[in-house]
Each structure stands twice: as C-alpha cells, then as structure tokens.
Amino acid sequence: MAGTTTAGSWKSKAPATPGRRAGSPPGGTPRQRVSPDGALPGGPGAAPAPAGPANRWTVLLVLCVSLLFVALDSTVLHVAIPALTEALRPGPVQLLWIVDAYPLAAASLLILFGTLGDRVGRRRVLLLGYALFAVASAVASMASDASVLIGARALLGAGGAMIMPATLSIVRQVFPDRRERALAIGLWSAVAAVGAAVGPVLGGFMVQHYWWGSVFLINIPLMAAIWPLARWLVPESTGDRDGPWDLLGAAMAGLGILGAIVGIKRLGAGASPLDPPTLVSLVVGVALLVLFVRRQRRLKHPLIDMSMFSRPAFSTSVGCIVVAMLALVGLELIAVQYLQLVLGLHPMQTGLRMLPLTFAAMAAGLLGSKVLHRVGPRLMVVTGFTLTASAVLALTVMGEHDRPLLLTAAFVLLGFGLETTLFGAYESMLSECPAGQAGGAAAIGETAYQLGAGLGIALLGSVMNAFYAPGVRHLPGVPRADSRGAGHSLGEAYDLSHQLGGRPGAVLRDAARQSFVHGLHVTLVVSAVLLLLGAAAALRLPRAFDGSADPHANACGGTSEPGTEAAEPAGPTGSAEPTDEAATGSGAEAARVGAQAEGRVGAKSRV
C-alpha cells in the first residue's frame, strides 16, 4: 500500500550475493533503500520502516509521556473548580463550559487530526499538537475571566486532538507484532489512567500552594522538554495517501459530534428537548453524522473506512470504550465534589484519596498483556465491566460520614476494573484495523474516549441534579429564591447557607448535604446498570487471543503484500532489510517469509 510503513515496503536495487544481505553493497555498508515506486526514504509518499528492537521501546516512552500531558489536563482542573469559581465568578453555564470545553473540542477534532496525520505525517501532527498545547496552557493560566478560560480550554482540546491519535497510531506502526503491541498498549493505557488519576493530586497541590492558574503552567516546561525528544526519536510515518483528503467529511464529522454533545449537555443541564437551541443542536449534529457516514461509504478513497464497523470486534470495542469512560469521568467529577463538599477534605487530601485508583489502574495496565493472552478479549472485558460495576455498587454504602477503608477498597476495584476494560477494548480495536488506517482508527477510539467522558458528565450529572434539586426546593424558613439557587449545586447551597446564617442557614446546609448523598446513590446505581450493559455487549468480542499473526497482515505491514519483499527482523538501527527469499520468490512465498520474520521478532522480544 503506497505510503504505508510496511515491513516489506523497501526494495533492493541489486540482487543478494553470498555473504551479504540483499540491499547492501559488497563492502557490507547498508545501501540507501527506495520504496516500491522508486522514492527515497523520507521522500514524498515514503515512510520509514518500523522501529527496531533497540529503539521502539524508547519511542513508546516518548509517546507515553506525550499522552500523560493530555490525560492530566482532562482532570487536573477538577479540584481547582472551587478556587476558580471564587476568583472568576463564572455563572452555572460558564462553569459547565469550563469543564466541558476541553473534552468537547478534543472529541470534535480527533477525526480531523487523526486522518490528517495519516496523510501528512503522524509525527508532524504530534509536534504541532505540542506547540498548541503549550500556547493554550499559557493563555489559560493567565485568564482573567471565564470566557477567556473557556477559549483556552478549547485550544487545549485541539492540541490534545492532535496528540492523542498520533500516539496510538504510532504505537500501531512501530509494534507490528501483536504480542509486543499488546504489552505496548498496556503501558500506554496505564499511563493514560495514571495521568487522569494523578491530575487531581497535582492540581490539589498546585492550588493549595499557588493559585488555580498554576495547574496549567506545568505543561509549558514539560512540552518544551518533550518536543526535541519527539522530533529526534519518533519516526515519521504516514498511512494510505491514495486519493484526496476528505476535508469536507472531516468538518462534517467534527460539527456533527460537537452538535450532538452540546445537545446532550443541554438536556443534562435541565433544558427541555423542545427547547430550540437544544433541539437544533441534536438534530443538526445527528444529521451531519448520518451524512458523514453515507458520504464515506460512497467515496472511493474515504476518510475512514466504515467497513471496519462491520467487524464485531471493532464496533464492540468502540462501544465498550464509550461506556467505560462514561462511568469513569462522570463518577470522578461527582466523587471529587463528595470528598471536598460532603466530607470536607482539602484539595490535596482529595487527590491523595484517589491515588488507590491510580495504582490499581497501573497494575491492570502492566498485567493486561498477560491476562489478555491467558483469558482472551471477551472474558477480559466482561470481567473488567463486572468488577467496575461491583465497585460502584459498593460506593452506595458511603454516606455523610467518612469511611476511608471502604472508599479505598472501592477505588482499587474501580481502577483495576476500568483499566482492564479499556485495555482489552483498545487492543481489540487496534488489532482489527489496517495500519494504513491507523490514524483514523485511533481517532475513532479516542473520539469514543472523549465522547464517553462528555456523555458521562452530561448524563450522570443530569441524574445527579434530578435527584439533588428537589431535596432543597421547599425548606422551612428558607426563601424560595435561595432554594432555587441552592438547587444548582452543593457549593452554591453552602454559599447561600452562609449568607442566610442562623437556623435557616443550618437547615439549608443539612438538607443540601443529605440530598447530595441521595443523588449520589441514585447516580451510582444508574452507572452500575450501564456498566453491566457494557459487559453484556462485550460478549460479542473474540473468545481467544490470536497472537500468532496480525489478522490484517497484508494491509498493515505484518507481512508483505503480493509482489513486494518481506522483511527480516529489524536491526538495531530500526531498518528492515529484505530477505533473499523474498527478493526472488513469488507473492505467496513472500507472505510466508514475512509471517515467519514477524514471528521471529515476537519470539526474540516477548516478555
């Protein structure tokens, strides 16, 4: 496939001779290789071969650090919301947009930047994402009003949309062997979980010792350090460049996702389905997504190959990612409010309380490859959902008083279960896609991730509000206007109770606490039901893990396509040189040799 980094995509100009490899001059120094169309490596339409054993794990380290920044920013602001609210005084809608602008912008732009990386180069898009992330972080840290902060958070989301699919598609490219790739994805997903969970801890420390804007400043020196490392270490790669890039399709997908999520968010905030802005957002968003799918099916060179969704493993994996993230992010935001506003913990204490979730997720990611090999994708994802649902139901025992042992045990089970689910889903999804579509497939997976996060805040937040607000609506001695204001959030109820003082203030405060805990319990039950539905859907995943060969080897580079040479295992420099058999054999023989070569790579480096 033109433009795809494949193990057998480099041809030799001269036949092999005894005592030296094909493609090397008599002196033994490797000659410069060319692609099947005669282009030099790095030229138009060309991409380097997969990274070799000596450097692919270094590449993974850089990619994991890149992902860490994006995951941190998805949660680092949660514990800073009380301090931010006091400093900027945003309205209820503005506060929701401050939280949601980041995931909404990221979700709507992932397909655009993921497929763009397949065309112009994944590393190039990654580096551009670093730069935008640093600039947006500087603007956010110095924001003087809520509107500026919302705009900066949207720019951060755009930078994240460049970084996230690039990291996953490059992992797909530099790890053609599925067993090694499973371990790499385990490390990758563990870092994502660590970033999301460490965010509140780091944010709490920065807010407690500095000011709320400092949670963004930490991105700038880190980005300045990682940019040259990525420029030097990460190989450039592209996907299928056949035909024009469908910019119109990318815009339709982005606007459709944005419109759908905005409509759902308005419903979650209590708007009527017939409210014009809500109705227009939903109708336009869904219509654009339907038109996008129909357009991709008609195009000869689509932006995203929609036939991937016809594979049960791919479509089911995407759905599982949405459900898992819906539970994680929605519950995490509510849990932070519970720890701070009900139990009265400081931001730093709140972050520390959530560390068990981080460590459990790390353990699940590191063990994920071995578990997947042993039990297979189906049992792994079903078990992960079941463990998570059990943890969520255990949290319903929590009330107005602190129970640290129970909370810690539930967080451990929650982190391990969710990471197990996400690992199995991501690995199955990525293994079902051709390498030439890696950027688009990674964008779909990350869109599902961000879509689930946005839906979690909207759906679980709306359930929470529906059962919280009635508890403070009619209270003796409390003015009706104050009761309505207290129904917006527990934090606002506390402010109003302080202003009222005396007996009415105490009544409002106690009622708000009790109502919040009641709403939390209902929300946890709803979340558990959704997780069990996810477990039922995961029964469509493959029963066994097939690590013997890439299921799409001919398309993804695990073996060579007919008529091209297969590759020996990549050497320490990352080059993949053709074998003598592949240089002279038929297409079928080339495929056989390529499969054997990939198997030797996995056998040498299997953990």
From TrEMBL:
Every Major facilitator superfamily (MFS) profile domain range: 59-546
Please verify whether the record's keywords include Transport.
yes
> How is it placed in the membrane, per its record?
Multi-pass membrane protein
- Write down the superkingdom of origin: Bacteria
User: Is Oxidoreductase among this UniProt entry's keywords?
Assistant: no
Region Disordered: start-end pairs: 1-49, 552-607
The membrane-spanning stretches of this chain are 59-81, 93-113, 125-144, 150-171, 183-205, 211-233, 245-264, 276-293, 314-339, 351-372, 379-399, 405-426, 447-468, 516-539
UniProt subcellular location: Cell membrane
UniProt keywords (A-Z) are: Antibiotic resistance, Cell membrane, Membrane, Transmembrane, Transmembrane helix, Transport
Recorded hits in Pfam families, A to Z, give: MFS_1
- UniProt protein name: MFS transporter
> Which organism is this entry from?
Streptantibioticus silvisoli
